[in-house]
Amino acid sequence: EALLGAIYIDQGLPAVSTLVQRLFADVLDEAATKGAALDWKTSLQELTARLSLGAVAYRVVHDGPDHEKRFTAYVELGGQRYGSGAGRSKKDAEQHAAEQAWQELSALRGTTD
Q1: Global pTM?
Q2: CA 106 → CA 20, 31, 47, 50, 75, distances in Å?
Q3: Residue partners of 1: CB distance under 8 A and separation at least 6
């Protein structure tokens, strides 16, 4: 933040804008896909609400020893499974499942916003 302020004072807004776009291009591209939350679960919730598809449910199973658990999550919507994902935590597995479900629903509905 301080660095951006210093560049703004020294070189103006165009220089800061160029730097921010270069440094954060990946995050900005991701934000355009996921929305303001930058979170697949929230993005999926927004998509299902916009399309009036009902409540999203997550089912999570795990296996492996306590020190090396592996979680697998499934997204269910209207009794149908739309996505699955795996991760070392329940949260990661749910995020991956939500991303896959978002992709599947977007493809089915012909929307990417």
Answers
A1: 0.66
A2: 30, 16, 8, 12, 14
A3: none
Please give the Cα distance from 34 to 40 (Å, whole number).
Answer: 6
pLDDT digits (tens, 9 = 90+) for 64-99: 998 999 999 999 998 899 999 999 999 999 999 999
Listed by start position, the domains of the chain span: 1-34, 37-113
What mean pLDDT value characterizes the chain?
88
- Domain 37-113 belongs to what topology? Double Stranded RNA Binding Domain (3.30.160)
